[in-house]
Design goal:
The protein has 12 helices and 16 strands. By secondary structure, it is an alpha+beta fold. The strands form 3 sheets. It has an 8-stranded mixed sheet, sandwiched between helices. Strands 1-2-3-5-4 form a 5-stranded mixed β-barrel. It has a 3-stranded antiparallel sheet with strand order 7-9-8, with no helix packed on it.
């Protein structure tokens, strides 16, 4: 075995034990009679110390490696108060598993900053950075917490298709795909399919699925391929959906806080679990912004600056915006019974950014067809969808979280590309 332990496994109480570790050379320091090699694996760093007259000469010479060499090191655990974690390895064997043949494109230790584009061009190297690794550990825990809580709440995970025959939310911002002898599209949302699952009798479903948006954005908060964390609930309305979303969000934040303290500290993220998530109407937020100098017409969406300003004015890090104008939301959002100009839709704002949206869905086929026509869409193009509601469709509601946006907030990042393993935007399709 090239490895018996990871760096995080080595503790002072193991002094005298022989271990083998494997990873990359993070740093090397030659002090003459003493050589220090910092070994890095995905769990962290550990100091390897060789001394003239104590360490075998061949092993000591073998410690003079270039940074990012991939190595296996065997040695004896020793307590050393000045070392990271109060422990070091005195090496007895070192193997260079694959000598580095080209120059590493940037400094992985972070001592010399690198531009994000350079890092993303060499993402396989960027992932070796401790900060980058921390982001994906947090994101992994976020996804685990999402799934775990919904399982606890009695939801079933399903897997919708990513290839669709027509727009799932209307509009034309779709990526076409050649599918045998016909033209189809990459799904911009699993919306219709999670509704069909509920109509099929699976009252509580969730999914983590890639979605594709052919929007020509060039911002720090948009991607063209992202992971959507979706939920749909049968025999429920928008308030029920918001209650579940609030529960899940509290659980995720609490779980990440408890499970990833080292990573959060490294990323400078100070998470606070909310006692409650307050609900503000769209109209009240528009009025508040206009009172403070904005010129926002009723019915318009909020831009990034207005989202940040609303959070500042409300004094809340996380909150709902409810009762949106019907015309500004997707065709399947249920209009309010008393005032059809507004609908039972909502957004969840976190850190001055929309990270989730949802609504009660229209389950009445006649009303659904009317809403499609009012958006200039032909109900015939959605015939399979509309017909499903003629076969005993219950009232239902749901929502979707943008995984990368939530990870941005949890990890205290300013650019969504940092939170996607290999991001896809308007220009980036490699690596």
């Amino acid at each position: 075995m090239l490895r018996t332990h990871y760096a995080c496994d080595i503790k002072p109480g193991m002094s005298g034990q022989k271990v083998s570790l494997a990873g990359w050379v993070h740093e090397v320091r030659d002090m003459g009679k003493v050589k220090f090699l910092i070994l890095r694996d995905w769990t962290g760093l550990i100091q390897v110390t060789g001394k003239k007259g104590v360490t075998d000469d061949a092993v000591l010479n073998g410690m003079s490696l270039v940074k990012e060499s991939v190595v296996s090191i065997s040695g004896i655990v020793r307590e050393e108060k000045q070392a990271r974690g109060g422990v070091e390895i005195n090496p007895t064997e070192i193997l260079d598993l694959n000598p580095v043949e080209v120059k590493i494109p940037f400094e992985v230790t972070g001592k010399v900053p690198a531009e994000l584009d350079v890092r993303l061009n060499h993402r396989h190297i960027d992932l070796r950075r401790i900060e980058t690794s921390a982001i994906f550990k947090v994101k992994s825990q976020m996804l685990r917490s999402f799934r775990g809580r919904l399982h606890q709440l009695g939801f079933i995970e399903v897997n919708p298709p990513c290839i669709v025959s027509a727009a799932t939310e209307g509009g034309t911002e779709l990526f076409p795909v050649e599918y045998f002898e016909r033209k189809v599209f990459l799904a911009q949302s699993p919306q219709l399919y999670k509704q069909l699952a509920v109509i099929g009798g699976i009252d509580k479903v969730f999914m983590t699925t890639p979605v594709f948006r052919a929007e020509k954005h060039n911002t720090t908060t948009h991607l063209n391929e992202l992971i959507s964390l979706d939920v749909e609930i049968g025999f429920a309305d928008h308030n029920d959906a918001m209650n579940v979303l609030e529960d899940v969000m509290k659980h995720i934040i609490s779980d990440v806080n408890e499970s990833c303290p080292t990573e959060l500290k490294l990323l400078g993220s100070d998470l606070k679990v909310p006692d409650e998530i307050k609900r503000h109407t769209y109209t009240s937020v528009v009025e508040l912004l206009n009172e403070k100098g904005e010129k926002l017409e009723w019915g318009a969406d909020f831009n990034r600056e207005q989202e940040l300003k609303a959070a500042e004015l409300l004094g809340e890090e996380i909150f709902f915006i409810t009762e949106w104008p019907t015309k500004s939301r997707a065709f399947y959002s249920m209009p309010d019974e008393k005032n059809p100009e507004i609908c039972n839709a909502f957004d969840l704002m976190y850190g001055g950014m929309e990270i989730a949206s949802g609504a009660q869905r229209i389950h009445l086929p006649k009303l659904l067809a009317e809403q499609l026509e009012s958006r200039g869409l032909d109900p015939k193009d959605f015939e399979f969808y509309v017909n499903a509601f003629k076969m005993g469709a219950p009232p239902h509601a749901g929502w979707a979280i943008g995984a990368e946006r939530l990870a941005m907030k949890l990890c205290n990042r300013n650019n969504i590309r940092e939170c996607a393993l290999f991001p896809r935007d308007r220009t980036r399709v490699t690596p």
